[in-house]
Amino acid sequence: MIKQMEVKVDGKVAIGIKIQMPDTPPLIMIRGDKGVVFCGYLNPESAEKFGLAAVIVRGVNSVDEALAKPVSYCTKKAESLGAKVGMSGKEALRLFF
């Protein structure tokens, strides 16, 4: 099952996606204009290779949890936009508009 939703932050709208995986936690992604908040399924090496502004939040089962949990990894491009390990997914998403 795939669920898509609008995620509103500070009057701006991002797209949240939840994909239920078989017998494992779901894949969660929230896409802003300039970058993405991902769950732990993201391969950091690939994100760096493609120059993607992305952060990873771990242990999430919903878009709301991804916004609330702390960032555990930032790509170099995400860092250049101000993202930092330890900030919430929501704080990082704000930087991606």
Structural commentary:
The chain has 97 residues and is α+β, with helices and mostly antiparallel strands. The chain has a single domain (2-95), classed as Hypothetical protein Ta1206 fold (2-Layer Sandwich). 25% of the residues lie in helices and 33% in strands. It contains four helices and six strands; from the N terminus they run ββββαβαβαα. Strands 1-2-3-4-5-6 form a six-stranded mixed β-sheet. The longest helix is centred in the last third of the chain and has 7 residues, at 89-95. It starts with a strand and ends with a helix.
In the CATH hierarchy, what is the superfamily? Hypothetical protein YunC
Question: How many β-strand runs?
Answer: 6
Terminal Cα span: 28 Å
As a percent range, the share of strand residues is 25-35%
User: Outline, from the CA principal axes?
Assistant: globular
CATH architecture assignment: 2-Layer Sandwich
Mean pLDDT: 97
Strand order of the largest sheet: 1-2-3-4-5-6
How many separate domains?
1
Kindly report the CATH topology.
Answer: Hypothetical protein Ta1206 fold
Helix content: 10-25%
The biggest beta sheet is recorded as: 6 strands, mixed
Radius of gyration: 12 Å
In the CATH scheme, the class would be Alpha Beta
Low-confidence segments, given as residue ranges, are none
Secondary-structure element order, N to C: EEEEHEHEHH
Helical/strand content category = alpha+beta
Number of helices: 4
